[in-house]
Amino acid sequence: MHDIQEQQNRVERAVLVGLRLNQKDETIWTMAFQELHGLVETAGAEVVTEVVQNRGLPDSATYIGSGKLDELRAVVEELEADLVVFDAELSPKHVRNLEEALPCRVLDRTQIILDIFALRAKTREGKLQVELAQLNYLLPRLTGRGASMSRLGGGVGTRGPGETKLETDRRYIHRRLVELSRQLDEVRKHRDLHRQRRKKQDVPVIAFVGYTNAGKSTLMRKIVERYGTGSKEVAEGRNRLFDTLDTTTRQVQLPDGKTAIFSDTVGFIQQLPHSLVKAFRSTLEETAEADLIVHVVDASHPNFDVQMETVYGVLGQLDVLNRPVLTAFNKIDLVPGTWLGNDPNSTETIRLSALQGDGVQDMMEKIDDLVGVRHLIVKAEVPYKESALVARIHREGRLFAEEHRESGTYLHAEVPQAIAEELRPYLIEEAQEAKPAKSVKTNEQMIFDMTDSTLQ
């Protein structure tokens, strides 16, 4: 019994395998391979060694050549490794052939990322998204894996729905995929209701995006602590990959007194699996619907420029590069001397330290400038037949005076520009620009406290 428990508690030993293709950028390859090291450790395994091969193209049968495969088998046996992790997404054929040739489990980069996501998902939506991605990944890879599955007894790469269960009934997987898609559609409808309400209220949405471990959660926490108007609970950011998986949204007051919704999203990474981008569509839609994207960059990372390209690549897939981007170069306190980084793709840039809190106020003011909803002071006499318009002014504006006259309702109020346009035919005098208020909350905004758009 003691031996079984000791076996379960033992940290698994992993060998990393990298294929350096001749046509690939050396910096990007090295960065991605170093990230694989961090991903495997994040998943809970110990990296005992690395095996790297230089080739023009991957081997069609085993990904690496036969000679390198013999070398890998010898390394695995000598170090008593529990698993071999490859630096790319392997085809079903590669997996089958490698598992027949090696005396341990074979995983690829995608499986490791999925495993971490399964470990980190806490909300119902997050768990649904992870399971959907895992099932889509595993379905074409089930055939002929009986021998390898007999070696599965828990550990890295086996979290989530579980491969042994999946192998028993392929039809079950298809039914489960349909059910997961249906449940996620319900979540999306839930999100859409919140978005529609926010649009009606002219509440801007600011989405935080960035490479994993860039400091988005730490920055979000600092902002909510200082400027949050609803729930101030935000998970504390930690120095580890994919620390934040489930999207968190919080209500924040901008410097001009208006309310905004800040949304923290999952971090990006080199070779982010397509199945994850697809499964997390509802989460990433927070970015697609945002009025402003805050791109958080780790200024202290030696390859921050490559990380920025990766983020913009995913944003391009989401078709959101047409909206304003504020790039926040974070961790500036860790950069020695004068830092000269720049982001030519952004609307504005700022330097800050989320951990120290330096530059956060400046960032909030820039956000205010970029998303501030223009409000106008109006004096109008609205016909009684336009009672719905008067009701909107009560909900979304700030009323200074109201008087029921013979020809209609006289109103002196501060309203969003959209309503001011509708009032144009009834204006008594020209509308004036409203001065920033210290704190303005409409009745409906007081009721609406968007603390977290994810379903618990």
Give a structural overview.
- The chain is an alpha/beta fold and 456 residues long.
- The protein contains 17 helices and 14 strands.
- The two termini are 38 Å apart.
- A six-stranded mixed beta sheet has the order 6-7-5-8-9-10, sandwiched between helices.
- Helix 2 crosses helix 5 (109-120) and helix 5 (109-120) runs antiparallel to helix 6.
- It has three domains: 11-107, GTPase HflX, N-terminal domain (Rossmann fold), CATH 3.40.50; 202-371, P-loop containing nucleotide triphosphate hydrolases (Rossmann fold); 375-433, Alpha-Beta Plaits, CATH 3.30.70.
- Residues 144-153 and 436-456 have low confidence and may be disordered.
- Helices cover 42% and strands 19% of the residues.
- The radius of gyration is 27 Å and the shape is elongated.
Q: Would you count the extended β strands for me?
A: 14
The value of Rg in angstroms is 27 Å
The CATH topology name of the largest domain reads: Rossmann fold
Largest β sheet strand count, sense and barrel closure? 6 strands, mixed
CATH domain class name of the largest domain:
Alpha Beta
Name the quaternary structure: single chain
Structural topology:
Layout: H1 2-9, E1 13-21, H2 26-43, E2 46-55, H3 66-79, E3 83-86, H4 92-101, E4 105-108, H5 109-120, H6 124-138, H7 146-149, H8 163-168, H9 170-200, E5 205-210, H10 216-227, E6 248-253, E7 259-264, H11 274-279, H12 281-288, E8 292-298, H13 304-317, E9 325-330, E10 348-351, H14 360-371, E11 375-382, H15 387-396, E12 398-404, E13 409-416, H16 417-423, E14 432-433, H17 443-447
Parallel strand pairs: 1-2, 1-3, 3-4, 5-7, 5-8, 8-9, 9-10
Antiparallel strand pairs: 6-7, 11-13, 11-14, 12-13
Helix pairs in contact: 2-5, 5-6, 6-9
Subcellular location: Cytoplasm
GO molecular function, one term: GTP binding
Function: GTPase that associates with the 50S ribosomal subunit and may have a role during protein synthesis or ribosome biogenesis.
